[in-house]
Amino acid sequence: MSAGGARALDLARDIAAGERSAVAVAQAHLDRIAEHDGLVHAFNVVTADAALARAAEVDRAVAAGEPVGPLAGVPIAVKDNLATRGVETTCSSKILQGWVPPYDATVVQRIAAAGAVVVGKTNLDEFAMGSSTENSAFGPTRNPVRTDRVPGGSSGGSAAAVAADFAPIALGSDTGGSIRQPASFCGVVGVKPTYGLVSRYGLVAFASSLDQVGPFANSVADAALLLDAIAGPDPADATSIPQAAEAVLPRLDEGVAGLRVGIVSELLGEGIAPDVAARVREAAEALAAAGAEVVEVSVPAVTYGLSAYYLIAPAEASSNLARFDGVRYGLRVDAPTTNEMMVATRTAGFGDEVQRRIMLGTYALSAGYYDAFYGKAQKVRTLIGRDFAAAYEQADVLLSPTAPTTAFELGAIADPLTMYLNDICTIPTNLAGHAAMSVPFGTGDDGLPVGVQVLAPALGEVPMFRAAAVVEAAAPAPAAFEIAGSK
Amino acid sequence: MSEPRVPTDSLGNPITVPDSHDVLVVEAADGSRWELVCGLEVHAELHTVTKMFSAAPNSFGDEPNTNVDPVTLGLPGTLPVVNEAAVELAIRFGCAVGAEIRRSVFSRKNYFYPDMPKNFQISQYDLPIVVGGELELTGGHVVGIERAHLEEDTGKSTHVGGDGRIAGAEYSLVDYNRAGVPLLEIVSRPHVRSAEQARQYVAELRAILVACGVSDGKMEEGSLRVDANISVRPEGSDELRTRCEIKNVNSLRSLVRAIEFEASRQADLHAAGEPVVQSTRGWDEASGTTVLMRTKEDADDYRYFPEPDLVPVDPDPARVAEIAASLPLLPSARRHRLAERTGAAVTDESVVAVVDRAQDDQAVAAMDAGGDPARVLVHVTQNLAGEGGADLPPGRLAELVALETAGELTATQAKQVLTELVADPSRTAAEVAKEKGFEAMDSGALESVVDGIIADHPDEWSSFCGGDDKARKKLSGFFTGKVMQATKGQADGRQVAQILARRAADA
Prior knowledge:
heterodimer, A: alpha/beta, Amidase signature (AS) enzymes, 11-stranded mixed β-sheet, 38% helix, B: alpha+beta, Arc Repressor Mutant, subunit A, 3 domains, 3-stranded antiparallel β-sheet, 18% strand
């Protein structure tokens, strides 16, 4: 059988009914990985043996009439910054190469409990710092839609894995757009849930107050299926929302009649490619045609999002990444003294972008600079929350581009600041702690996928998914592609 | 030369230094006189089952690196979760010293050290949970508390080779059993004015922590650690001069020595016109001196910022009130109670000693059972300090004191009966007294014994009758001794003295 295009919902239903073999499904996806991942490089590690064993266990449970979960036998790719017991977890960094966690991240436990079959760990920008997956110590991932293009980042490996049908669903993490922007570039659905909806326990931290784990899928419904499986309180994460999460999947088909949709005017002007802006307006028209009330809203403070983000995220990162010192795990570069060993290890182990952000963040937190930088950035954060709150008085969900452009060529952007601009539409959501998702909607003038971003206030996942389902239904059918090219 | 003043403390409150009747004043080499200003920082390990932010056991003395889990080791992806029991213990302490319990925020204190798994310590910075409060010392002096905050302990490094410090070591071993153990850092105001007050402060703090079940308070195991912030100023001035922080003080005795040494060192520097450099110094037990560890210039910039993995701790006032109501009677309240019952001063040595030994409940119960308070206090202080003394049922003590005050037992006899009662409290005091043959003599019998002794020693008797006070006192002892000999100690000394006085007046 072929792996191509199968939806997670269908696979889970058929496998649970005994109509398909989980082993056969896993093998088909592993075959496809074997065929194409040499070029795409979505995975840092493919866990073929473990996946087949796990799939066999699902088949056995089905045959024995035991209950199986909502993701029974569904292959899933896991971003390589989520701790997996017994499987190397590197964050695509030399400093963690060879580190095998003795524990599973909460989300990894939850997908396992739901019956999913992990096929491998996916490539990312080192420690999730980047927007192209070119900052990986193990080489870049290519966009399967057109392999001379980047898949976006930092969850480029997970986005590419889903786009390439290496797995119907994948887990990523989103700190400033790291799920949504690669979803947009690769033509898949990507969701950044409300901060605290999904446990961060076991997600190797980049910026703790912004990080959130979320799903990738080839459909809005599959994304809802995966989100429902991972959402909910976790006593191991003090920032997780203590109330039980509301299931999204059962409410997907409720439509948008009477839903107020606001187009964010600040995110459709300067810096946004005209073809991308045009797709957003078309998606808005589709929502209006389905009965939504579409208005234009202003969220003035989003224009400061990027500046605030590049103080807050590096500040937290500088502290979060301090533990990588060669003392307990990962890389150690020997030197005459402990201090020199730490310096040598960190110098050799971290890539340029990581070192740049650690230095930036260390500076922003330093005595005498804290108020001017970190303190001020936190005030901007408050302002963004306030402006969003005002916008959500007028609209239930908001609409914007996910990224300013379609996928760019590998190596095209060398300047870090230009790279940072990729995230102007996604960052404000992380700063506010809100939810947002990217839904494919047609292509740009270059024929590459465009993503439309649906934004919602905290715990607004249900209306967000309802709007996303309507956008998905109205989207032009994606062009078929063959994974082709040379390394 | 006076250093610039530091007018406020870490919470923005003005710094005040109270006067005291026993301020330590040291004399510098040139004869100038300098008085001590001292504040103490006490780190108390909290008596919890698990660690501050993880479920790993909080237990001392186990095999290295056995009380660890992924959170303790700071493994990538792990997150801290606040131990509610530790928060409750901090609140207990706060209530015990009359402090305010506030909404508090954890922050990260960032610096690199191999025994700190995350290379930052989670602590409370500008918003601690406990603010204010005070301690009344056994000597009567009152020391204000600035704040107390929760934090996690570090691991323990052993540097092998070289001189035992990390610099120059061949290699280092790290034990993370202690990493993440909950600590309460209790910061006093600079209200400590003498080394003796410092000793009393730490002893009192320890007693409170133990009484409330907050900490086991073992300085020798490091579960109570003391740093002293010390400065001196010209006697009688109200300046605040540059201070030094003294670490590695491992006993109350060392604390006293370290303060006295450091005050003299700084006084000599000031007197010689040399600067006292703000620094951290270590107490060296062997040499009896403080040794420079680092100056403020070398200090790390800790880059504090609010810990994003945790939410603020905002205790429910109703819960705080519940905790306050559940506290046991604390040492200073116990001393006041005992002082009031006995009429002694609250700083009286007996009162302090009995409360320190936690025998005041026993004493008060004996008084409640009718024992004369002054005699009860004497017996508990002097005769029940030994093994088993604290276990003597208060009713037995009350019986004994009743026999004594009724004149049926002498002080000497009472002490002997008490010893028997401690060994076996199943019999009454009266039964023991009877067994030992301690029967009160009737006064007629005693008078005839005294008369017999007088008749046997005519020379001494005439000297007694005609002598001055001194001779009379001496001979009174002589006659009493003879009477005691003759009665095998059953006579009451006071009664003998009365009979002698009467006979002399009649002579």
